[in-house]
Amino acid sequence: MDALPDEFFLHRFWEFLAVFMPSWSPYKECLQNHGVLNGKNRCWNATIGSQCSSRFGLDSRKQGRCRKQLSLLHGSAKRLIPYERFKNYSSCLRELRRKSKPCIDMMIQRCQKAKIRAVKTVRAIMPEVVPLADRIPNFRLIHLFRDPRPVLVSRNANPYYRSVYAGTKTKKEGGGDMVKEASVYCPTVVADIRLRQKTVESDYPGSVTQAIYEDFVPRPVEYAQAMYAFMNETLPPNVKHYIDTNTSGQKWKFNALLRMHKWKESMTYDTGDKVKAACSDFYNLVNFTWPY
Asked: Which uninterrupted H or E stretch holds 209?
């Protein structure tokens, strides 16, 4: 785990994760006590924030340049030297990582006791996978994605995932433009899938698989068994019990199939058709019969 990028240990989501998973509160408190909580964002804003748009920003060319520079810092590109601001960003992260070493040591000790260490991220892009696959011998990637229409509904409502075209929860400020949002979101997903299919799968055979949400939800136990087999493990009985309990209940909260279709209440047929047109490359690329 010590080979993981500095951003992993200093990301602002550790603060939010501690709310949903109280067992990680000691790590968050340790970062806070050492003055490095949200350190990644602090380094970003102080060095390259003005040059690099947000993860779901509009300027794809600027994003591409920033990703290339960041890949240089992580050693996934060769023979080029990153710009000075990116070097400063890297130096800032290294200094905060040095300050947070007691916290990181605590995390590593805890995680090393676990047989499987899993991380779910909604913001990583496929080029960021390569450094991890190079550094971690038993690395496994499950590339999870779903129909863009419900994703856009979710991003339009959730403040942590909003992009420039997303709306807000207040009626006064409107609901956002999900069609324009699709023009930002779908090309990123398509680029990830193409890179995975053309490069990552061949360079790291047996380390990558995909999971489509709409394929997973109707048969969660079967899918979970396949995912554990992908990691050369057997689905534990307690995990199967959790899946059975939390995906097939009578109430909407515990009925995965009902939740899967919930997005349709927030998108008109006309908007849905326009999103499908904007995301035509995605639908043409992914060989799957969507249940909508």
From this structure: strand 208-212
